[in-house]
Amino acid sequence: MDVLSALGGLGIIPVVKIEDSNDAARLGEALMKGGLPCAEITFRTHNAGESIQRMIAARPGMLVGAGTVLSVEQAKQAVSAGARFIVSPGLNLLVIDWCLEQGVSVIPGIATPSEAMLAMSRGLNVLKFFPAEALGGISYLNAISPALPGARYIPTGGIGAENMITWLKLPYIHAVAGSWLVTSKLLKEGGFDEITRLASQAVENVNTARQKTEAR
Ligand code: 3PG
């Protein structure tokens, strides 16, 4: 299965900012225990590359990607650390083209139909819809999606346990993503059991959303 299909199958991508790369291995374990073998480690700290490397070394079965990738330089760093997918908050054609050349899965951020069209012109149809809730949430995406057939979205920004099911029930949603499962506070306090609990609750929510959708 390719990386984007695997992410779609999981239905949820935990967005993680790791200040201390010593946390990477335990965090991987906590997410795996919760049934979520996946993480997007953001380039918002200087040790993102090292954290990616350490999570994969400790948990080789995990699907680890890089987030907040703003430059080709960061994309290169992420991929050499072992990242299997690259996520950006916006559309950077240099990053996209580099990833396509390398055969690395890339998920650009889009906020408008024009940005979605540009990404689609590069053959990309799985797009990060960011910042989802602040842009107008489901009503905004419902308004633009009929005009962009084939596009699938990963809404991010303002998604949490309370609204993820509603998002996941929409037919054009590939997965949801967000930072609520692994907050900086939980990481700082060593709240790995709570991270496991939030991960397994999110997995349950994915199952609930998809069962209901299938039953319709
Ligand atoms: C991201 O980088 O993907 C977003 O900042 C995550 O948004 P959230 O913190 O609202 O989940």
Describe the structure.
With 216 residues, the chain is α/β, with parallel strands linked by helices. It is globular, with a radius of gyration of 16 Å. The chain is 49% helix and 16% strand. The protein is built from eleven helices and nine strands. Bound molecules: 3-phosphoglyceric acid.
Quick tags:
binds 3-phosphoglyceric acid, 49% helix, alpha/beta, 3-stranded parallel beta sheet, single chain, 4-stranded parallel beta sheet, 216 residues, 11 helices, TIM Barrel
**Attached small molecules:** 3-phosphoglyceric acid
- Overall spatial form: globular
Count of DSSP-assigned helices = 11
Order of helices and strands: HEHEHEHEHEEHEHHEHEHH
CATH class: Alpha Beta
Biggest sheet: strand arrangement = 3-2-1-9
How many beta strands in the DSSP annotation? 9
Q: How many domains comprise the coordinates?
A: 1
The fold-level CATH name is TIM Barrel
Q: Quote the distance from N terminus to C terminus.
A: 27 Å
Largest pleated sheet: 4 strands, parallel
CATH superfamily: Aldolase class I
- Kindly provide the radius of gyration, computed on alpha-carbon positions and rounded to a whole number of angstroms: 16 Å
Helix fraction by DSSP (H/I, runs of at least 4)? 40-55%
What percentage of the residues does DSSP assign to strands (E)?
15-25%
Structural class: alpha/beta
Given as residue ranges, the uncertain stretches (5+ residues, pLDDT < 50) are: none
Question: In a nutshell, what does this entry contain?
Answer:
It contains 11 helices and 9 strands. With 216 residues, it is an alpha/beta fold.
